[in-house]
Amino acid sequence: MAILMNRPGGPTAACNTRAPRDRSARRPLPRLRSAFPPRSAITLIEVLISMGVLTIGILGVAALFPVGAFYAQRAEVSDRADAAAAVALNDAVTRGLVDPENWVSYELVDGGSRPNPWGGAIRPGSRVNGTFTRPFAKDLRDRLAHATYRTWNTGGTNQVAAYQALNHHAGSLFFVDPFGVASGVSGPNQYTSAESLRTVPASTQSFAPITMLNRVWWSPWLSTAAINRVSVGRPSGNTVSGVAPVPLAMADELVAMSDDLAVELGDRADRPAQQRVLTYSGGPLSRQADLHYSYLVSVVPRTPEGRDALAYGGRGQAYDVTAVVFNRRPLNAYNPSDGFGGVETLARAERTCLGSVVSGGPSGGELRLFTRRQTQIDQFSNTLADNLPWKDLKAGQYVMVYGPDPNSTPARPLLYAQWYRVVALNDDDAKKVSGTVYLGPTLALRGPDWPWAASTRSQVEPGLSADYGGDPSVVQDDLRVLILDGAVGAYTRTMRLEAGTAWAD
Question: Quick one: where's region Disordered (predicted)?
Answer without folding.
Answer: 1-31
